[in-house]
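yo

u said u wanted the structure for the complex thing, so here. seqs first:
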Amino acid sequence: MSFNPEMVPPCTLAIGYGLGVWVAAALVVFLTAERAKHTFFSFLLFMGSFFIGIGAFFSYQQKAISFNLLPCCYFAIAPLTIRIDTLACFFLTIVALVVCALAIFSPAYLKAYKDRLHPGIYWHCIFMFMLALTLTLLSTNAICFLIFWETMSLAAMALIASDHIRQKARHAALIYMGITTISTVLIFASFLWYYRHFHSWYFADWHAAGSITFPALLLFFGLAVKAGVWPFHIWMSYAQAEAPSPVTAFMSTVMKVVGLYTFIRLLILDNNDGLVLGYIAITLGTVSIIWGSLFALLERDLKRLLSYSSVENIGIILIALGVCLVARHDKQIDLAYLALVAALFHTINHSLCKAGLFVGAGCIEAVTHTRDLAFLGGLARRMPWTAACFLANSLAITALPPFNGFASKWMVYQSLFKLTMSDAQVIDRISGLSIVGILSLVGTLSLACYTKAIGICFLGRPRSEMINQANELSHSAVVVQIFFVVICLAMGLTVPYVASLLWPACCEVLPKVEQVHNLFPVPLQTVTCIAVAITCFAVWFLFYLAKRPDTGLKKYVTWDCGYGNLPARAEETGTSFSESIARIFAPILRYRMITEIQGKDRRHFPEIIKFESITSPLLEGLIYRPSMRVILILSRAIAKLQTGSIHLYLLYVFMTLLVLIGIGIRL
Amino acid sequence: MAIFEWISFVAVVFILPPLVLGVLCKTKARLQNRIGASIFQPYFDLYKLFSKGETVSEVTSWIFRNAAAINFAVVIVVALLVPWLTFKPAFVGADLILVIYMFALTRFFTVLAALDAGSAFSGFGASREVTMAMLVEPAVIFCFASLACVARTSDLSVIFSCDNFSLSHNNALWLMAGLGLFLSSLVELSRMPVDDPTTHLELTMVHEAMILENSGPNLALVLFTHYLKMCILWGIAAQCFLRSISYFWTVGPLIQGALSLGALFCMGVIVAIIEGTLVKLRWTKLPQFIAFAVAMGLFCVLIAVMRG
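structre next:
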């Protein structure tokens, strides 16, 4: 089927226009190179994603269309065919929404780092990344998918290294390169296996003839590596911290979305047993949420904190997907739908509020030139809008009402409850309830983590000089953050509507059943929140407005125990805030504290007090470093074979010849 | 009937919380051979604070002053949601996850308000608060979730409805849930084995340390919110205990209402006895205490799953 504009409805064409804008932009960057203007290319990025978003939103729920994008392109064994269906449109809409907003934010941030980033390369990679990402979502066959997937990864690698003058950024890019290769190898292997089993490269054919579990496992692990599921999350904290903030936001939201899309597209279908994969997903998800939230709590670097929190959220999504798989295996289609809607909903919510948080973190980074919590503080008065938006986005991501995060987490809880109440095996039911407990523990951990981030960054007294010169980065950055908050809040207050919108996307992969309309009890959140808002206003009115402010609102120093105005160093720091939790989880965090007191009479008149808290990531020390060492030793051994000496090579040739002659005589 | 319910409920919400505290303090004083203040003392304290001026640290931002109002509003609405007394006007369904996350919302703002003034002491308090919350949250949710599993709904007002006889023969489950919730409430409210509410040593306090900077009407608001939260948590534990007694299911709504009020005061007296006889645990020993609450929750889970 070739491309024929008359066949395609106008809204779907818009997606094509969007892609066209990006292709054109990529070419223009190529020509302008050094002189590339951030504002201009941000505008092109915005326009492209705007068209794609509009197209995808209006094509949602329409009949799927597939066509050859470029008939001349024939990747050796399969044509470049794209397919626009409900599920792809759903994910495209999220991607476009996030990219639109981030495009507005980018110029302000990039201008602050103009001497460190090469604009031409940066924008070229961004457009390559976005094009490849979009086409990955639209690919119909394995070959296209792999090509675009690889392009996307390479572009992402280049973007991580955009500030390559710093050694840390190069290191992060290298780690990312390694991890993405592993991911691709696993996915490649699984696709080959699928091809052998189903005799087709097309995804659509991959669920008819029987179920095979092993390639599904390979694919699962390939995607898990890429999505940053425990124990493969290591790369995230490096790559996401070192990349420029807009890139970090892209990677932690839209790139994850692609991974999840592939999971839902290929693994929820009945081409595997469901039970094995479901259990693995639930287990890894559970470990991920604990691990991610614990390490996020301990982190001092704001961007690393956010990236660990992504590990936690991926874990929640994975748990929901696991429940969906188990439910499908047990033939409880209603539960499978609920869990899948929860996973999709949480994906949107996480993308939106995490993007908002990364924008906030980017603003702080660009203004204060540090991400270390130990040097921040008191920013709420210098950057009131960023502070308020960061607070609101944190409420959303810690799943507190009235934001959307609560609704999706409610659905995850609810699907676990349903699993417990179902006729599943006792072990399933007990583990369902236990995960409810773990989720609540993790919920409080992430609450601790975000209160720490806000409290240390924005509240209290400034811990360094540069805070006093800080101001909002730009109007555009503020607008983008407000945009994210408004969307999160609006989605939180209209949950039943949003949940009903998600249903058709689930129908793509699950057996069709009649739509359940009360996925989320209608008045639950909205009414409660309105009640809270009214009461809050009444109280506020009674207590603060009715009492005239001049009757004794006195400003004074913070209570300092009679020591006189204490410096900011006496405040609670991020490290001390998380210390008591870190102690409890010391074995996992490998948390140690070393206190050294010196002086003549140490106890009462110490002269020097030295205090050091050390955490070392368990996995890196225990698994990754040793395995790296083994690989290095092995490669050194192999390298001995290839020393570059022509004599040795001649010997090899001679030996091979002898062996071949020997075999020949034998035969 | 509905109007009567609303009036009685609003009256209870505003009158009961300080009274329960008053009874608690009085009992505690008598246990220590003191005459003690009148049981109405908390009202006088609140009135005094409300009519005072307010001193605010110059470091604080908008969060500090508004957190108290937000928390107050949230807890009032939670009081309307949670069936902590048998008589309660009908409101939208009280989903248990919603209730738990509403409490989390108050915690979020309390912690932020504590960090806002940049004081070392309130920072300690905040850090301890989140630690204890993290440990105790699974216990709370296990107790509620196992009740929800047996009742096959996550709506607390259905689970705790007196007409819901599907739960009437689960005495052990109710007892365990009640114990679990009661033990966790001691942690959540920073009461005795966890924190001594009467000391004023900044280094050891939890809740008191967090609200160190609040004063005047703001402090009155914070304190009232705390009292109300206390009533809700003890009330819901008392409801569980009452339901573990078969007699409770057979009596009419009026007696049930009276019983639940009486049980609430009983909880106050029990806490007073605990506070009069126990000493505060060391901070490092706390996880072991909380483990009891979590164990109760796990028992609930086992009972619920085996039964269902």
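Chain B has one domain: 2-307. The mean pLDDT of chain B is 88.
cya
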